[in-house]
Amino acid sequence: MHDSLREIWTTRGDELAQVEFRSVLAVQPPRTATPLDSSDGADAWFAGQSAAVERLRSRACTVARDGAAIVLVHGEPGSGKLRTTQWIHRNGNRGRRPLLVLDADDPALVRQLDRVIETIASDPSHAPGTVAIRQIERADAATLERVTRLLGCQGVELICAIALLANETTEQVRARSQAHANLLGRVGSAIVAVPALRHRAGDVGELTRLFAELAARRYNKSIRGVSPQALAKLEGHDFPGNVRELASIVEHAVLRSSGDWVTAEAFFGLGESAAVRSTDASELIIRLPGSSLREIEVQALRLALRMADGRIVRASELLGITRHALRRKLEKFGLNELRAPTDL
Fold first, then answer.
1. What is the dihedral of CA 242, 243, 245, 250, to 10 degrees?
2. What is the pLDDT at residue 291?
3. Is the model more confident about 323 or about 271?
4. For 34-38, 76-80, 269-273, 327-331, which range has the lowest pLDDT when averaged over its residues?
């Protein structure tokens, strides 16, 4: 990899933002856009039959096929903007080269964009295929100027496309500043609106089944499916955190399930107004909207060990995982002090 970009590829810890390192010089077959589906974990977020997700799939296919120089992908937090951007990049004509994901509020963003511009000028074969900038509505004037410069430095043959990701609507982003308005003026019709989960009527059931299947595979659990009662409970929740919240809740429920089915009891707390509620000795803490799976897992481990008086065997039974897996998790999260002295 070109040294001038090495730091950029590794600036984020977000799992979705990790770059798949591939040889950009290798001979690869031409890419054609394939329909968004749920055949793997990356595309599971786009499952469903609602009119809203059908429009998303159709629009993403069109944008990937057209290969626009600059694209705006907007939607609420957790709706799937980055996953949509990844799909467009992967299926576009620049998908042979990496996708670089940056954040608009990163103090080093201007320097990172400058290095991309330098790489395009000195060694285009090592430039990213797409630069995605999250929360573009928060970008300052210097950042927007660099984005415009990145577009203008490439000449007729576009080497690197730009994806602008926003939590706001097109109109809201445009109203942020004249510089925002000028940049969005170059987007033209290459705009993809990612719908909130509450607008995807009927998709919760299919998404839940897919997320449960993926989580069961990830944690090596024998889960046959999600009970009708559990699905009914999920469908009654408004999911302010959108698909990301649903995926996290389902993964947590699978993690704590010990039977063949994920039941309604595994989704307790849904619909309550409080973001956090206290628990007694018979239940785990519900996930917090916007919290990470790590936080949820740590809380589950703490409560299971408290209920089991620190005994590994009993706690592993409560969590539905093996003793070895529980020991590894305690080591990973630095929770060994919760174990009973006789279990150390």
1. 140
2. 52
3. 323
4. 34-38
Q: Which two tokens stand for residue 232?
A: 């009914």
> CA quadruple 229, 235, 15, 41: dihedral positive or negative?
positive
Closest CA to 192 of 72, 320, 17, 275: 72
Cα distance between residue 152 and residue 133, in whole Å: 17
Using alpha carbons only, what angle is made at residue 103 by residues 144 and 162, rounded to the nearest 5 degrees? 55
Which pLDDT score is estimated for 124?
Answer: 87
* Euclidean distance between CA atoms 266 and 243, whole angstroms: 18
Q: How far apart are CA 177 and CA 182, in angstroms?
A: 9
Are the beta carbons of 320 and 256 closer than 8 angstroms? yes
Q: Most distant CA pair in the chain: distance in Å?
A: 71
Mean pLDDT, range 46-67, rounded to an integer: 93
Token output for 301: 């481990």
Q: How far is CA 22 from CA 14, 25, 211, in A?
A: 19, 9, 28
C-alpha count within 13 angstroms, C-beta hemisphere, residue 250: 34
Q: How far apart are CA 49 and CA 206, in angstroms?
A: 9
Please report the pLDDT score of residue 109 as a whole number: 93
